């Protein structure tokens, strides 16, 4: 198996009329990873993966998938790339097993449909019409159709949107199983928790550009290079005394007193050094709290998404805290 | 993985679901270097089979497309007092019964139902629902689905026409056509020209609802000119003249002429051929997959 990247996209650009959906997106997906494409609705995620999948021709930039040009070698590409698209896409009266058998007939070397139905928990629904499936079952069938050709690369677009928390967790387990079987995955999502839980690496997309690339932890660190320590003294201590106690701690970048509590910002060994320094100065503490940034914080800080929520015309109507519901 | 397992709100994320070893094997990427086998032929056969099944699962479409023409002809023939009367005062038409004269109209009805009502609505629904787009992500692509749809609709149409004529001959004792070959040619051109019209609707209608609306409008206008409600010979001269330029009006007139042994209906056949030759390429050109 080669170690060449599965997807190599450089400076992709795509406009719809006067709307620039994708301005400048470059990304590299390595074999065997779950690569998250994360961003608000309307950020250009779907357009980006559609160009990768050969469904749209880029206006600018280059893209190479499994060594193929997606627009020129579409047929060869589609033999090796499985797509799960956002919206439901089967006739109402088509039954689960029929859909899978039909799609299996499109590929030269398909998976056994029965195995896939087992894997995705749809075996009991094999004779159920598409319109009678629940939202989660429809999504899982959609994933099964994307996998039936035994692809090298699976592109899953907003896989768990509209699913309840339970169905969402089930679907996540399926995604991990797919990766473990050796399939490279590009996961398009606007859910921070999903990206944090599943993705080996993430590209943050905002306004058609890549705002950051890295592991979830790296992105959080990059956005919040500093830690924030909140300390409340057990007994009242003069503000100046508190600040003086920290004056010689090298990792402290900023310290201030607000509302009787000390707020210390810094990096490195901030927590330990600051607490030791305070103890040496005779300050006893009742309440110590460390702010740990989440991917969502990083997202907001790296993309400025909250600064101008109206910038995107089809902004996600759900509250930004959706990811926290699980 | 059971979809019915309850999970209390706020429960910790469960460990990864166990994957059966068999399933894992199912997912392993296929070796894509060695072989490149075209899956196209098998896929088209499978698609046609699936489309046929879907068609059979839609009771209203099944009834109107397949059975209604035969039923209409039989009921009218048995119930209507005019059924056994001479078709028209016109000497050329006086020799056949009215119900025999109505048979070409019923065949036009059968063509119109499939080509203007069923076919465009299904195709527009497939486009709106993303069925075509989904197929465009596979090696096979969406074009074969349209081929499968046309195949299923044509098969339906042939069966519906055979049922109608069969019922007419067996139950009502209608006269056989004088020029069978010309009737068949007229029927074929009727199918091509009316499918051209239906394909234009399928190509241009932005939504499934629009396709349904446009299709039904064309359908009822076409049925009027095909003489479904009032046989053409009983209509005013101007209506008969206009009807000649519509696909199903021309079809009815051409089939009737050949049925009763009138001279070769060249103009009517030409009108239908022109509809087909102009309409089908335009529809193909304007067709949008998404």
Main traits of this protein?
heterodimer, A: 326 residues, alpha/beta, Rossmann fold, Alpha-Beta Plaits, 13 strands, B: 290 residues, mainly alpha
Number of helices of chain B: 12
Strand content of chain A: 25-35%
CATH topology (fold) name of the largest domain in chain A? Rossmann fold
Shape of chain B: elongated
CATH architecture of the largest domain in chain A: 3-Layer(aba) Sandwich
How many separate domains of chain A? Answer: 2
- The stretches of 5 or more residues of chain B where confidence is low (pLDDT under 50) are 1-23
Main β-sheet description of chain A: 6 strands, mixed
| Class derived from helix and strand content of chain B | mainly alpha
Describe the fold and architecture.
The complex is a heterodimer of chains A (326) and B (290). Chain A has 326 residues and is of the alpha/beta class. Chain A folds into two domains: 7-221, 3-Layer(aba) Sandwich (Rossmann fold); 226-291, 2-Layer Sandwich (Alpha-Beta Plaits), CATH 3.30.70.100. Chain A has eleven helices and 13 strands. Chain A has helices at 45-52, 74-80, 96-104, 113-119, 135-147, 165-180, 192-198, 216-223, 239-245, 270-280, 295-303, and strands at residues 7-16, 19-29, 34-38, 60-65, 81-84, 153-157, 184-189, 201-206, 209-214, 227-233, 252-258, 261-266, 285-291. Chain A has a six-stranded mixed β-sheet with strand order 5-6-7-3-8-9, with helices on both faces. In chain A, a hairpin with a 2-residue loop joins strand 8 (201-206) and strand 9 (209-214). The model of chain A is unreliable at 306-326 (pLDDT under 50). Chain B is mainly alpha-helical and 290 residues long. Chain B has one domain (43-286). Chain B is built from twelve helices and no strands. The longest helix of chain B has 31 residues, at 98-128. Chain B is elongated. Chains A and B meet through helix 2, helix 3, helix 4, helix 5 and helix 6 of A and helix 1, helix 2 and helix 6 of B.
């Amino acid at each position: 198996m080669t170690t060449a990247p599965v997807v190599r996209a450089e400076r992709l650009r795509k406009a719809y009329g006067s709307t620039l959906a994708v301005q400048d997106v470059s990304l590299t997906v390595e074999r065997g990873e779950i690569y998250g494409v994360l961003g608000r609705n309307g950020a250009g995620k779907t357009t980006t993966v559609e160009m990768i999948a050969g469904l749209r021709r880029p206006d600018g930039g280059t893209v190479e998938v499994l060594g193929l040009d997606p627009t020129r070698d579409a047929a060869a590409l589609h033999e090796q790339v499985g797509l799960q698209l956002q919206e439901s896409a089967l006739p109402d009266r088509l039954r689960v097993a029929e859909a899978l058998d039909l799609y299996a007939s499109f590929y030269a070397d398909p998976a056994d449909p029965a195995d896939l139905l087992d894997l995705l928990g749809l075996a009991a629904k094999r004779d159920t019409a598409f319109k009678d499936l629940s939202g989660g079952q429809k999504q899982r069938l959609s994933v099964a159709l994307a996998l039936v050709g035994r692809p090298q690369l699976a592109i899953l677009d907003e896989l768990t949107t509209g699913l309840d928390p339970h169905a969402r967790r089930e679907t996540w387990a399926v995604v991990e199983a797919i990766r473990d079987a050796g399939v490279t995955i590009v996961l398009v999502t606007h859910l921070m928790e999903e990206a944090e839980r599943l993705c080996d690496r993430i590209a943050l997309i905002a306004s058609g550009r890549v705002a950051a690339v890295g592991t979830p932890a790296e992105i959080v660190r990059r956005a919040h290079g500093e830690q924030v320590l909140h300390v409340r003294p057990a007994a009242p201590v003069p503000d100046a005394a508190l600040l003086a106690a920290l004056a010689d701690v090298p990792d402290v970048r900023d310290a201030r007193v607000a509302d009787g509590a000390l707020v210390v910002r810094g990096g490195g060994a901030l927590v330990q050094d600051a607490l030791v320094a305070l103890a040496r100065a005779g300050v006893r503490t009742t309440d110590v709290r460390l702010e740990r940034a989440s991917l969502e914080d990083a997202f907001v800080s790296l993309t400025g998404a909250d600064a101008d929520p109206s910038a995107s015309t089809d902004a996600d109507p759900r509250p930004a805290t959706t990811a926290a519901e699980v | 993985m059971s979809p019915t397992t309850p999970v209390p709100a706020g429960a910790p994320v469960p460990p990864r679901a166990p994957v059966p070893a068999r399933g894992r094997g199912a997912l392993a990427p296929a070796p894509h270097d060695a072989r490149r086998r075209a899956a196209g032929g098998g896929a088209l056969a499978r698609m046609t089979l699936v489309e046929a099944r879907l068609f059979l699962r839609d009771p209203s479409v099944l009834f109107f497309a397949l059975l209604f023409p035969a039923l209409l002809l039989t009921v009218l023939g048995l119930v209507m007092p005019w059924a056994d009367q001479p078709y028209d005062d016109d000497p050329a038409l006086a020799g056949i019964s009215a119900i025999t004269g109505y048979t070409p109209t019923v065949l036009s009805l059968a063509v119109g139902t499939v080509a203007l009502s069923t076919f465009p609505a299904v195709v527009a629904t497939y486009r709106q629902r993303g069925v075509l787009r989904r197929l465009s992500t596979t090696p096979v692509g969406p074009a074969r689905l349209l081929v499968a749809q046309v195949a299923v609709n044509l098969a339906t149409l042939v069966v519906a026409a055979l049922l109608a004529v069969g019922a007419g001959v067996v139950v009502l004792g209608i006269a056989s056509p004088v020029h069978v070959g010309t009737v068949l040619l007229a029927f074929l051109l009727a199918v091509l020209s009316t499918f051209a019209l239906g394909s234009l609707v399928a190509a241009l209608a932005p939504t499934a609802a629009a396709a349904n609306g446009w299709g039904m409008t064309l359908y009822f206008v076409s049925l009027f000119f095909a003489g479904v409600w009032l046989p053409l010979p009983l209509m005013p001269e101007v209506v008969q003249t206009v009807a000649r330029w519509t696909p199903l009006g021309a079809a009815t007139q051409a089939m009737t002429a050949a049925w009763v042994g009138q001279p070769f209906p060249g103009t009517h056949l030409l009108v239908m051929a022109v509809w087909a030759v102009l309409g089908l390429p335009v529809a193909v050109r304007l067709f949008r997959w998404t």
